From TrEMBL:
<protein>
    <submittedName>
        <fullName>Gamma-glutamylputrescine oxidoreductase</fullName>
    </submittedName>
</protein>
<dbReference type="GO" id="GO:0005737">
    <property type="term" value="C:cytoplasm"/>
</dbReference>
<dbReference type="InterPro" id="IPR006076">
    <property type="entry name" value="FAD-dep_OxRdtase"/>
</dbReference>
<dbReference type="GO" id="GO:0016491">
    <property type="term" value="F:oxidoreductase activity"/>
</dbReference>
<feature type="domain" description="FAD dependent oxidoreductase">
    <location>
        <begin position="31"/>
        <end position="381"/>
    </location>
</feature>
<keyword id="KW-0560">Oxidoreductase</keyword>
<dbReference type="Pfam" id="PF01266">
    <property type="entry name" value="DAO"/>
</dbReference>
<dbReference type="InterPro" id="IPR036188">
    <property type="entry name" value="FAD/NAD-bd_sf"/>
</dbReference>
Amino acid sequence: MANTPYPESYYAASANAVPPRPALQDDVETDVCVIGAGYTGLSAALFLLENGFRVTVLEAAKVGFGASGRNGGQIVNSYSRDIDVIERSVGPKQAQLLGQMAFEGGRIIRERVAKYNIQCDLKDGGVFAAITAKQMGHLESQKRLWERFGHTQLELMDQRRIREVVACDQYIGGMLDMSGGHIHPLNLVLGEAAAVESLGGTIYEQSPAVRIERGASPVVHTPQGKVRAKFIIVAGNAYLGNLVPELAAKSMPCGTQVITTEPLGDALAKSLLPQDYCVEDCNYLLDYYRLTADKRLVFGGGVVYGARDPANIEAIIRPKMLKAFPQLKDVKIDYAWTGNFLLTLSRLPQVGRLGDNIYYSQGCSGHGVTYTHLAGKVLAEALRGQAERFDAFADLPHYPFPGGQLLRTPFAALGAWYYGLRDKLGF
């Protein structure tokens, strides 16, 4: 079987050394079979192992091959649709539960990093940057909303204050969240995989799940082996393909593009982001950026609906970077890559159960780094019979894309064009 390596990226080039893991080549039996060795799958595996379950993880390529190892590396709280939107959709009781969980993912990441000594360049502090007065008003109401759910590490910033933390004159203000932050995302997921193995879990790489035999004792088949389990957790997200047709109909893979500069040197790096916070703007199609441990700028943005790989990523993202930081016009780009995340029509994650023993979480809609860590915990709780928090997610309404899989890409692209126009015009 072909060996799928990591796609070229700054993260792959600077990843911590890890041993290669074998492909599954025989029949094994376990309590829980997890499909996908990204944040969701490994978070679930860790919580289950800590509670005495036997866990086997199947990964189609390599640990963190998908969004977990290619994202912008930013710890951003809440969900892609905020708690007030959820409240209007599902009512106060369910929203209260989801609101209490909205800031838990970042705490889980920090606990994992500390407990398992994961070397992933964790830094505290994330900035939401407002370009228009309307966006600033939204941040003011967002701060009130988050504080209602006990989240207090927030500071509103006026134009003078935001210039102290980011050397970009586009912004009229912003909000600093000190429980936000940034990490080397691939090294985080590699550290979590090592933690899984330290607790007796098994991870097979190059072992795609090709078929799930459903029933009282479900079996996951790979090209060269199979796993018989009491429970299955499906955590493939944008890289699941059509393994579970019910899940493919209600979601759409989308690509986001990232570039990384050459090392900028201490002085230039510090002049851009003096406190080393990460930043995202408040546009619908937002830009996001941060410094790496070796003083490069990682800059991402743009969405390609349907997850095609654009021909020239640098041509798409470099102009966005130079709009924010014209002082980087002579700086070389060392890495450019794309990665897929899974979008849902509601922009809210899809969590649920198929039959009695197949559980899933998918569709972070671009808000995955923190949510996936929470999702793993919520899935593990459900398998242990504590389903209240699982049910709060499972009861969220979900809709298929209009026109089915054939038309979901043009519909979403049209919506993005409309919102992108609104951003440009300042509505």
